[in-house]
Amino acid sequence: TKGINSTFIALIPKVDSPQRLNDFRPILLVGSLYKILAKVLANRLRLVIGSVISESQTTFVKDRQILDGILIANEVVDDARKAKKELMLFKVDFEKAYDSMDWGYLDADMERMTFPTLWRKWIRECVGTTTAYVLEQN
């Protein structure tokens, strides 16, 4: 499966005489095999994701809304005010969590949840070995 997720980036000119990077439109050319594998994995994961993702995780899971977390936090603050209790809140901003993901940890976690070895291998191939090449015109 080496190279299954290699992507080529073609820069298509938006204007007649492009001079700057903004004058180009990048088009990603992703292999068909990768697209098929990613779609199959996503469809199969959809069947179990509700049971492997914590109830407190409110985004990217069907029938859960990102605003649920905000509403819960708002209720906690209101209850603390009514009860005249002191309260401390932390707003944490996780920037680009995907970019800083520890894929080894994710693999170990999937193993702990009894995901099959082949499944985990396919996931690693999709997310862990991505390469991109810029195609030059000339």
Structural class: alpha+beta
Q: Which bin fits the share of residues in helices?
A: 40-55%
Q: Any idea how many domains?
A: 1
Beta-strand fraction estimate: 5-15%
**Principal-axes shape call:** flat
Structure description:
This protein has one domain. The protein is 43% helix and 14% strand. The chain contains 4 helices and 3 strands, in the order ββααααβ. Strands 2-1-3 form a 3-stranded mixed β-sheet.
Key phrases:
single chain, 138 residues, alpha+beta, 3-stranded mixed β-sheet, 4 helices, 3 strands, 43% helix, 14% strand
Give me a quick take on this structure.
The protein is of the alpha+beta class. Helix content is 43%, strand content 14%. The chain has one domain (6-135).
List strands and helices in order, with pairings.
Elements: E1 6-13, E2 24-30, H1 32-52, H2 67-82, H3 103-112, H4 117-128, E3 131-135
Parallel strand pairs: 1-3
Antiparallel strand pairs: 1-2
Helix pairs in contact: 1-4, 3-4
